[in-house]
Specification:
NADH Oxidase; four-stranded antiparallel beta sheet; 6 helices; 14% strand; binds flavin mononucleotide
Length: 172
């Protein structure tokens, strides 16, 4: 699949078939994550792949009660080592959230290529997620996503026109 086709057809999927994902598809998605760029190539992240149904169900209340998260056969918990990331991003900040976001973008687009759905989950209780999957206290949880066969075909949500999002040479 062409990159632009994956970008155009990716949707946030909030209904999943319960069937497990073929191992090769999961491996391909994770390889896309591994190849993501990170500041200074520090690769300050770790993904927890949750397949266990009881653990998935536990994650629902930690994700603001979003029940569809546990419908998918896999949940990816995106974790980052804040201290190990590049510390001078834009002069003074850690790049950990940016690094992890790029990793997740690779995941969501590679998933489309594999016929799989994802949905970025940003509404979650970080400490509750840490406790459920055993993430150390000094490691940040940046995002989660369910991963599975889509059981819906969402319409393209509206986007702003390009003129509103882009200007040339100077701010206008
Ligand atoms: C940082 C971030 C956090 C998000 N958190 C949630 C979430 O907690 N639950 C949810 O259902 N969707 C969440 N989304 C998905 C957005 O609602 C979705 O990307 C947006 O509405 C556009 O739809 P699309 O992904 O289908 O293009 C999140 C997306 C981003 C980028």
């Amino acid at each position: 699949m062409e990159v632009m086709e994956a970008i155009r057809t990716r949707r946030s999927v909030r209904q999943y078939a319960p069937e497990p994902i073929p191992a090769e598809k999961l491996d391909t998605v994770l390889e896309a994550a591994r190849l993501a760029p990170t500041a200074c190539n520090y690769q300050p992240f770790k993904l927890v792949i949750v397949k266990d149904e009881a653990t998935r169900r536990q994650l629902v209340p930690a994700c603001a009660g979003q029940a569809f998260v546990a419908e998918a056969p896999v949940i990816i918990v995106g974790c980052a080592f804040e201290d190990q990331a590049y510390q001078r991003q834009a002069g003074s900040m850690s790049s950990f959230a940016i690094d992890l976001s790029i990793v997740f973008d690779h995941i969501t687009l590679a998933a489309v290529d594999q016929g799989l759905g994802t949905c970025w989950i940003g509404a979650f209780d970080e400490q509750a997620v840490r406790d459920i999957v055993g993430v150390p206290q000094d490691v940040r949880v940046v995002a989660l996503t369910p991963l599975g066969m889509p059981a819906e075909d969402p319409a393209m949500p509206p986007r702003k026109p390009i003129e509103e999002l882009v200007c040339y040479e100077k701010w206008e």
